[in-house]
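Narrative of accomplishments. A recurring question from our advisory board has been how the design workflow behaves on a single, concrete structure rather than in aggregate. To address it, we present the structure tokens for one chain from the evaluation set, followed by the sequence designed for it. No filtering or post-editing was applied between the two.
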């Protein structure tokens, strides 16, 4: 029957050897983790930074743990060395040796100051314990707790410092280039909304960088998982970049706006010239419409001829205003005005063309009637009836009406229609055959 002690069954020699080996391996892993933590870039940066806010609070609570972990590690190493010394007394340990080893390896025979035990239980009197008796397993657990505290803060700070400050610096450099671009097109603070926005963005990015450097944990969102331990990955999370992203989008929007102004500056002369040319074509078209109106009144009788509007003098004034803005480099004011002028000049040209079309419509009707009359005469010639007396009479009447001034379009249209009807009647007679045995026209 196996012997039992205060800490359960007494360990066998094989159990002692396995436990000593496991504790030795764990000691090496803990030492490696502590050395890695000592050189962790986040921890080293935290030690030299002027911290504020959430980061200062959490680091002040976690930072003492590094030295405390080394103290716990030394205590753990000493206790493990003591157990190894007992085991090395004999190749085959006695029963008393096994009882002593069981107490050393499983028992709570290691004294640790209370300050080295995060979350240590209070004493019966209600205050914090000055010391506590723990086992080797408890020592490893307490080192894990301190490691998790420090590693979580150091890893989070390092992640934020790796992700944000360099990006903010690049964005500040881009902001400087955008500032220069803004000055080149006359966009200045106090004179243009984009200039004011650039000033505010500069202040926002400077403030953001200062907060990132002094309080990185303000920009860290942890992912809720179990606590970390030496040799295992720290608690994960993500860097909060919402403020940076908003600033980046704002800088890009202003850059695009300024790029449009630069393009406007480069194209302004050509665009203004095109507007002037369009207005000139509109004026020439209106002049042609006025000349045509006089011709219509002289050549066409009883016709309502629409009046021709005058030139767009207001457009000329606005074009002169645009020229002034271009000379003074006021591109942000010129842009909307030039867009309006381009659209308005095209509408003005279209209005002039519509006026010309409306004025010359009677002449077009007369030309169309002349063409129809000539076509009907050609058809009569092909049918061999062009010399028909009635058709000749109707043709002469229609031709006099269409080639005399002023021309009565309604009467001329009726005359052309009568010639067409006479031609159709002759065609029908030809199709019916000879009358009284005599050929047509005999």
């Amino acid at each position: 029957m196996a012997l039992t002690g205060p800490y359960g069954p007494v360990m066998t020699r094989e159990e002692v050897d396995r436990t000593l080996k496991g504790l030795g391996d764990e000691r090496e892993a803990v030492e490696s983790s502590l050395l890695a933590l000592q050189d962790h870039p986040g921890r080293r940066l935290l030690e030299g930074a002027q911290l504020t806010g959430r980061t200062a609070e959490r680091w002040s609570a976690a930072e003492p743990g590094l030295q405390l972990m080394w103290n716990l590690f030394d205590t753990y190493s000493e206790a493990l060395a003591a157990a190894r010394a007992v085991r090395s007394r004999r190749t085959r340990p006695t029963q008393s040796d096994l009882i002593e080893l069981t107490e050393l390896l499983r028992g709570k025979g290691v004294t640790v100051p209370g300050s080295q035990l995060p979350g240590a239980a209070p004493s019966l009197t209600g205050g914090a314990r000055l010391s506590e008796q723990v086992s080797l397993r408890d020592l490893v657990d307490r080192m894990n707790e301190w490691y998790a505290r420090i590693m979580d803060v150091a890893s989070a700070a390092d992640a934020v410092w790796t992700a944000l400050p360099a990006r903010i610096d690049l964005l500040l450099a881009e902001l400087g280039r955008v500032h220069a671009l803004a000055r080149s097109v006359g966009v200045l603070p106090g004179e243009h909304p984009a200039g004011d926005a650039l000033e505010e963005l500069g202040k926002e990015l400077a403030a953001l960088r200062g907060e990132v450097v002094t309080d990185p944990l303000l920009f860290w969102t942890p992912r809720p998982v179990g606590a970390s331990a030496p040799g295992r990955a720290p608690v994960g999370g993500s860097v909060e970049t919402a403020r940076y992203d908003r600033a980046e989008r704002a800088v890009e929007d202003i850059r695009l706006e300024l790029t449009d102004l630069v393009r406007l500056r480069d194209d302004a002369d050509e665009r203004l010239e095109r507007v002037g040319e369009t207005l000139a074509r509109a004026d020439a078209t209106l002049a042609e419409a006025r000349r045509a109106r006089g011709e219509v009144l002289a050549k066409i009788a009883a016709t309502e001829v629409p009046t021709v509007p005058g030139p767009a003098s207001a457009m000329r004034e606005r074009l002169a205003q645009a020229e002034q803005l271009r000379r003074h480099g006021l591109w942000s004011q010129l842009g909307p005005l030039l867009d309006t002028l381009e659209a308005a000049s095209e509408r003005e040209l279209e209005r002039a063309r519509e006026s010309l079309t409306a004025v010359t419509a009677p002449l077009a009707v007369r030309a169309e009637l002349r063409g129809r009359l000539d076509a009907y005469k050609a058809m009569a010639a092909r049918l061999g009836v062009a010399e028909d007396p009635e058709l000749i009479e109707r043709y002469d009447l229609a031709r006099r009406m269409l080639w005399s001034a002023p021309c009565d379009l309604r009467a001329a249209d009726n005359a052309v229609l009568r010639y067409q009807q006479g031609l159709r009647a002759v065609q029908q007679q030809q199709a019916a055959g000879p009358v009284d045995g005599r050929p047509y026209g005999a």
